[in-house]
Specification:
Blueprint (H helix, E strand, L loop, with lengths): L1 E5 L12 H14 L3 E4 L16 H17 L5 E4 L2 E3 L4 H6 L11 E5 L6 H13 L3 E5 L5 H5 L3 H7 L3 E5 H6 L5 H7 L5 E3 L13 H12 L1 H17 L17
Parallel strand pairs: 1-2, 2-3, 4-5, 5-6, 6-7, 7-8
Helix pairs in contact: 1-2, 9-10
This protein binds fe (ii) ion.
Fe (ii) ion binds next to loops.
């Protein structure tokens, strides 16, 4: 599996606190069946200035430290850099300036929003990024009020080529026919990632359990698409190998 959202880099944001924590997360991910993980610390913004020390230089430093420690500990986890970008005005300019990073050497960007973001405001940021040539992956759509009110709001984004990333724990802990399952079963999301933060949050990598649940709901081929094939396509710049979304007919938030 490929996990495209994890706060595994240590002493950088609210993720891993130490190199030891980062190694514990890496061990858990490998035991779970993950071979490749994107390290996506919170990009610095006004909203998270209190807990993110992010800079691209510090990210690269932490990534190099962790890669060396993984080799030393013989943990077979490949890491690629990324950023969980806070979707706010000015983000295109900061990407262009190199203050925020897309995934590895791609034009794909992981973008989160404030939980109360309106649909119009989210679309405005996503479309601005797309016009600038970026492929947008929307982080944890299940947490946004406009998606909770109307899951079909994600269709317009999907039709414009944006992808949406469900969080593994939302699927594992969500109720049957709840929002996470509904988003997955209607392919209103196209990939699953852990958004792991580390032992101090009780949020270790857990993509395996989410893949198992997806396989129960939709069969192994789609479960693999959500946890391996779509993430691989994002990293290689290929189209997402998944059928288009299917509208939710009845939804009571
Ligand atoms: Fe995150």
């Amino acid at each position: 599996m490929i996990d495209l959202h994890a706060h595994i880099l240590h002493d950088l944001d609210d993720g891993a606190r130490s190199l030891k924590d980062a190694l514990a997360m890496a061990r858990a991910a490998v035991a779970d069946g993950v071979t490749l993980m994107a390290a996506t610390p919170h990009g610095r913004s006004v909203a998270n200035a209190g807990f993110s020390r992010y800079s691209v230089a510090l990210l690269r430093e932490r990534l190099a430290e962790l890669r060396a420690a993984l080799v030393e500990a013989a943990i077979p986890l490949e890491l690629v850099p990324g950023t969980e970008i806070y979707g706010e005005p000015g983000v295109v300019e900061r990407l262009r300036a190199g203050d925020l990073l897309p995934y590895a050497d791609t034009r794909a960007v992981l973008v989160e929003f404030p939980l109360a973001v309106t649909r119009a405001a989210a679309e405005q940021i996503v479309f601005a990024l797309q016009l600038a040539g970026y492929r947008v992956v929307v982080a944890h759509p299940e947490r946004y009020a406009f998606v909770q009110d109307d899951p079909n709001a994600l269709i317009a984004l999907a039709e414009r080529g944006a992808l949406a990333q469900l969080t593994a724990s939302a699927l594992i802990k969500g109720r049957p026919n709840g929002l996470a399952e509904t988003l997955l079963c209607h392919r209103l999301v196209q990939l699953i990632a852990s958004d792991a933060h580390g032992p101090h949050f009780g949020r270790l990598p857990n993509l395996g359990a989410a893949r198992a649940r997806a396989a129960e709901l939709l069969g192994p081929a789609l479960a693999d698409a959500f946890t391996r094939d779509v993430p691989a396509a994002i990293l290689s710049g290929a189209p997402a190998p998944i059928p288009p979304p299917e509208p939710v007919r009845r939804w009571r938030p």
